[in-house]
Design brief:
InterPro entries: CoaB-like_sf, DNA/pantothenate-metab_flavo_C. With 370 residues, this protein is of the alpha/beta class. It has a domain of 203 residues: Rossmann fold (3-Layer(aba) Sandwich), CATH 3.40.50.10300. Helices cover 31% and strands 20% of the residues. The protein has a nine-stranded mixed β-sheet with strand order 7-4-1-8-11-12-13-15-14, sandwiched between helices. It has a two-stranded antiparallel sheet with strand order 2-3. A two-stranded antiparallel sheet has the order 5-6. Strand 11, helix 7 and strand 12 form a beta-alpha-beta unit. Helix 3 packs across helix 9. The chain starts with 22 loop residues before the first helix and ends with a helix. Bound molecules: ligand PAZ. The site of ligand PAZ has 13 residues, from helix 3 and strand 11.
Length: 370
């Protein structure tokens, strides 16, 4: 049995309802998913195969569910089609990484995402020629590079797909991935783009059978999901390069929340994105290595509880770098905006630029150790 799956839950030991589960109490009380051991072994083999040959990235993608019944008819879901994760995985492969693509079952996947049934149904690509089926010349032009990259990844075995459905599956798998990737040390990257529920129903609160409406209204009290970024950073994979995402619907919260996450968990980078602009604008927030002199355009100063919240300079037009220097800590922001990066070519995808930035940072992170 793998390290990740060896903890057997004691179903009686769940903390008081409504309390926040610690990571330890979570894994001691919640049942592991049925395929955890098999999936852990697949990840272990994959990491072993590529260790020393390629850098390895774990990409998490799509939303997690919270089932209301163990024979599940109904569940709560998290928004996310898996576009960010699937697109990013393609660019990581293109940049020479081996990719563990940990995704929500039936969410978008690298390569096939170009032909999703709703946006670009594959039957529309095809035409009948005599008795055979071929892609139309116009479609073939788009399909060719996608198919080449897909075949390459398939033939070389550079991508491993691992699926999850519930937030519980996700948490167990993340712990397993962190553990099996630890030997990669700095050569491993974590790109946590999945939209993970903050709340869940512990096993002992989940109804076994379909909840009956005859009982009237439904009251749910959910518990908080443990903040697993902390053990990921501090215990499971202390050397990995860890990138988390922060989704907000209020632009003004992006940077402060991203800084707070960095201060709280101590990882390398938070990518902030706002719901409606996420496909063309993101902000990288990280600790500044060399705090620049204050007073320059695009820089920040001030601070509250070690975090900076006051912008003192003029408008920031991305991409630019800003930094803050609150009592010892310093944060740097890099905005990426599609229109500014490629002269307004809307065919481009922001993930291309995100991954290029990350590859450079990962390289620097690896070199900094030597
Ligand atoms: O899958 P998608 O492309 O529709 O959305 C991507 C995203 C917004 C879920 C992702 O970029 C992200 O921010 N994930 C983390 C969400 C969170 O704050 O939990």
């Amino acid at each position: 049995m793998s390290e990740a799956s060896s903890a057997q839950p004691s179903r009686a030991a769940s903390p008081t309802p409504g309390r926040e589960f610690s990571t330890e109490s979570y894994f001691n009380t919640q049942r592991p998913p049925a395929r955890l051991e098999v999936q852990t072994e697949m990840m272990r083999e994959f990491v072993k195969k590529w260790d020393g040959k390629k850098r390895v990235v774990l990409v998490t993608s799509g939303g997690t569910t919270v089932p209301l019944e163990s024979n599940t008819v109904r569940f709560l879901d998290n928004f996310s089609a898996g576009t960010r994760g699937a697109t990013s995985a393609e660019y990581f492969l293109g940049a020479g990484y081996a990719v563990i693509f940990m995704h929500r079952l039936h969410s978008l996947r690298p390569f096939s995402r170009h032909y999703s049934h709703s946006l670009n149904p594959f039957l529309d690509l095809l035409t009948i020629s005599s008795d055979s089926v071929v892609a139309t010349p116009e479609q073939a032009k788009h399909l060719l590079p996608v198919l080449r990259a897909y075949n390459k990844a398939h033939d070389e075995g550079t991508m491993l797909s691992i699926d999850f459905q519930t937030v519980n599956d996700y948490l167990w798998l993340l712990r397993a991935a962190g553990t099996v990737m630890a030997p990669l040390e700095r050569r491993g990257m974590f790109y946590l783009a999945a939209a993970v529920s903050d709340f869940f129903l512990p096993d002992d609160k989940v109804a076994e059978h379909k909840i009956q409406s005859a009982k009237g209204s439904l009251h749910l009290e959910m518990d908080q999901v443990p903040k697993v970024l902390r053990p990921l950073v501090q215990e499971w994979t202390p050397e990995g390069y860890i990138v988390s995402f922060k989704l907000e619907t209020d632009d003004n919260l992006l940077v402060p929340k991203a800084r707070a996450a960095l201060a709280r968990y101590g990882h390398q980078l938070v990518i902030g994105n706002e719901l409606h602009s996420r496909k063309y604008r993101v902000v990288f927030v990280e600790r500044a290595i060399t705090p620049p002199a204050s007073g320059k355009e695009g820089y920040f100063t001030g601070g509250v509880r070690g975090l900076v919240d006051k912008r003192i300079t003029g408008a920031m037009t991305p991409p630019l770098r800003g930094a803050v220097t609150p009592g010892g800590g310093a944060y740097e922001e890099t905005w990426l905006e599609l229109g500014q990066l490629n002269g307004g070519d809307k065919e481009k995808e922001i993930e291309e630029y995100i991954i290029a930035e990350l590859v450079a940072r990962h390289e620097a992170w690896i070199k900094a150790k030597k």
